[in-house]
Specification:
- The protein is an alpha+beta fold.
- The chain contains four helices and twelve strands, in the order E-E-E-E-H-H-H-E-E-H-E-E-E-E-E-E.
- Helix 1 packs across helix 2.
C-alpha cells in the first residue's frame, strides 16, 4: 500500500487502484485473477446444489427432525449430500436407492433409530409417486429401547423430494401414529406416502420416535436427548 503525494484521486487506472481511507489517499495494485481448475469449479457448483437440497429437505422433513435448528446437524446433513455427489454434476449422477452417506443418516448424533427401534424397516417405491414403508410385526417392550416410565411412543414418518439441479421443492408427505408401550404384539403394517418424484429428484424418507413418559400423573415427551432418535430410512435419486 502506497500513499499518494500531492494527489487526491479515487479510481482505477490499469492495474492500479487509487482510494481514500480515514482521510488519507492511497494506491495499491489490483489483485490478479485467480483461474479455477475444472475440479474446483465442479466442487463450487456442487456445494451450492448440496446446500440448496440440504435446506429444502430439512424444511420438508422438519416434523421428523428433533432439533431442526441445530447448526451442527445442518452441516452434517449437507456434508452427507456433498459426499454422495462427489465431483459429479447432477446430470452425471446415476439413479439409485440407499444412497451412500445419506441413507442411514442420523439427525440426532446422541442416538440412532436402529439402536432404539430394533426392527427392520424397508422402503419400496409403489407406482411413480408413492413410497411404501413396511414395518414388520413386533412387541414394543421387546423391540423398542425406552426410558423408564414410558407409556407410549409416537412415530413420525416423513418423505420429501426436491429437484437437485434446480434446487426446488417437489413436496412432502407426513404420517404419524402411536405405539402403546406394552407386551402386546403390533401387527405388521404398510405406510404409503405420496410424494412427487420427477426425474432428477433427490428423495428422502425419515422416521423419528417421541417417547411419552408418566410424570405427575400426565404423559409428557421425554427430555432425554438420548431418546429422541431420528434417521433416514431411504434416500433415492430418480
Amino acid at each position: 500500500m502506497g500513499k499518494q503525494k500531492d494527489l487526491k484521486y479515487v479510481g482505477r487506472q490499469g492495474n492500479l487502484i487509487y482510494y481514500e481511507l480515514n482521510g488519507g489517499y492511497y494506491i495499491r495494485t489490483a489483485p490478479g485473477k485467480i483461474k479455477q481448475s475444472a475440479a474446483t469449479k465442479i466442487r463450487s457448483s456442487n456445494f451450492a446444489v448440496a446446500a440448496g437440497a440440504n435446506r429444502l429437505l430439512r424444511q420438508l422433513l422438519q416434523p421428523a427432525i428433533p432439533f431442526p435448528k441445530d447448526k451442527k446437524m445442518q452441516n452434517r446433513f449437507g456434508g452427507a449430500i456433498m459426499k454422495w455427489m462427489k465431483q459429479q454434476n447432477p446430470e452425471q449422477l446415476q439413479a439409485g436407492k440407499k444412497l451412500p452417506f445419506i441413507h442411514d443418516f442420523q439427525f440426532n448424533e446422541a442416538t440412532s433409530l436402529q439402536e432404539r427401534w430394533k426392527v427392520e424397516l424397508t422402503v419400496n417405491q409403489q407406482k411413480p409417486n408413492i413410497l411404501k414403508l413396511h414395518i414388520p410385526a413386533f412387541i414394543p417392550k421387546e423391540k423398542i429401547a425406552a426410558p423408564a416410565w414410558t407409556k407410549r411412543v409416537e412415530c413420525t414418518v416423513a418423505a420429501a423430494s426436491c429437484i437437485l439441479k434446480e434446487k426446488t421443492a417437489n413436496g412432502s408427505s407426513i404420517h404419524a401414529f402411536s405405539i402403546p408401550y406394552d407386551n402386546l404384539e403390533i401387527p405388521a403394517q404398510d405406510i404409503q406416502l405420496l410424494v412427487p418424484m420427477p426425474t432428477g429428484s433427490l428423495v428422502v424418507m425419515a422416521v423419528s420416535l417421541t417417547y411419552y413418559v408418566s410424570k405427575k400423573g400426565k404423559q409428557v415427551p421425554t427430555e432425554q436427548v438420548a431418546f429422541m432418535p431420528s434417521g433416514v430410512v431411504e434416500a433415492m435419486y430418480v
